[in-house]
Amino acid sequence: MSTAVALDHVAVVARNLPPLVAAYERLGFALSPLSRQSGPLRPGGPVETFGSGNRCAFLRHGYIELLGLLDPALHANGVDRFTARYGGLHIVALAMQDEEANLARLHAAGVPIPGVSRLQRAVEPGGPVAHFARLPLPDAPEGRLQLIRHLSAELVWDARWMGHANAADALTEVILVNDPAAESAARFSRLAGLPLVPDPAGGVLLELPGAAGAAGPDAPVLRTAVRILEPATLPRVLPSVAIPALPFIAGMVVRTSDGNAAIRAILAREGIAPAEVPGGVMVPPEQAGGAAIIFAAS
Q1: Which of 62, 156, 211, 237 fits as disulfide partner to 215, beta carbons 3.0 to 4.6 Å?
Q2: Is-above-0.90 flag for pTM?
Q3: What φ, ψ does residue 186 adopt, rounded to 5°?
Q4: What is the pLDDT averaged over residues 103-121?
Q5: Spatial contact of 46 and 40, defined as CB atoms under 8 Å apart
Q6: Is 214 helix (H, G, I), strand (E, B) or coil?
Q7: What share of the chain is helix, strand, coil (3-state, %, to 5)?
């Protein structure tokens, strides 16, 4: 298939990783071990160790990456550039099933991607190395927008770090804002190879049809979405969320398997006051590394 099929992951970026990790553990996410990133700095080049590293919350469908800088003397993998704008969401990855077919489609559309980019990282210190095929959209002002195919998904979606106390089981939406929204919408539509529809809140919606195993080895067929809003409409979806810069990847929706019972209990215990929103509760950005999180009852 030569289009995107699902929302694979988003990345929350901070220059200093430990406080970001602590915030997500406080919200009830179980995180994978710290992993250093590596890969070629250009298509076909040698694999080099990056200065960036991550820990991730792997869900049955999709995941949340927490990305930070571990060694400022090495390639920062965008961390310094992203955090100079704001701390929060800077990466949106859409799952694909065929990187060569998608590369051909993007080339036919005039997108200057030099080739398939390969990334790899050890799953845990001394552990096996996971590999990924990526098609990053060049020069996207929103951040790093990319198509991704996991070449060793069974290594990263490991049951040892998937037992989330908050009962999170799927990443279903990412929400961003731009003025005009149509500029970001056009980029996402071109990257995904999919049409846009109106968003009921005001803006544009990119709907991804889903595919079994596309965003995790046991991922079901699940419709996911990218919502692209005008600044005036953002409060209808993410109340009281300030816009630090435009474009701005403002938040995400995470589905829970227990009707939000566990996350409500966690927030009450931690003294975090959520906002009630249609379909769930919203944790404000200041409690989640700059990214608003809507926990949606299944």
Answers
A1: 62
A2: yes
A3: -65, -40
A4: 91
A5: yes
A6: coil
A7: 20, 35, 40
What domains sit in the chain, N to C, each tagged with a CATH number?
A: 6-161 (3.10.180.10), 168-297 (3.10.180.10)
User: Taking residues 175-204, what's their average pLDDT?
Assistant: 96
Of 206, 208, 1, 224, the C-alpha closest to 102 is 1
**C-alpha count within 13 angstroms, C-beta hemisphere, residue 175:** 27
Tokens of 233: 């409409």
Residue 229 has pLDDT above 90, yes or no: yes
Q: Please give the structure tokens belonging to residue 215.
A: 């965003």
Ranges of beta strands (E only) in the chain are 6-13, 35-40, 47-58, 63-69, 88-95, 117-122, 129-136, 144-150, 168-177, 196-198, 203-208, 224-229, 248-256, 275-277, 280-283, 292-297
Long-range contacts of 67-75 (CB under 8 A, 24+ apart): 67/11, 67/12, 67/13, 67/14, 67/17, 67/91, 68/13, 68/14, 68/15, 68/16, 68/17, 68/18, 68/20, 69/15, 69/16, 69/17, 70/17, 70/36, 74/49, 74/50, 75/41, 75/48, 75/50, 75/51
Q: Which of 178, 198, 194, 238 is nearest to 94 (CA)?
A: 194
- For 126-184, the pLDDT digits (tens) are 888 889 999 999 989 999 999 999 999 999 999 999 999 999 999 999 999 999 999 99
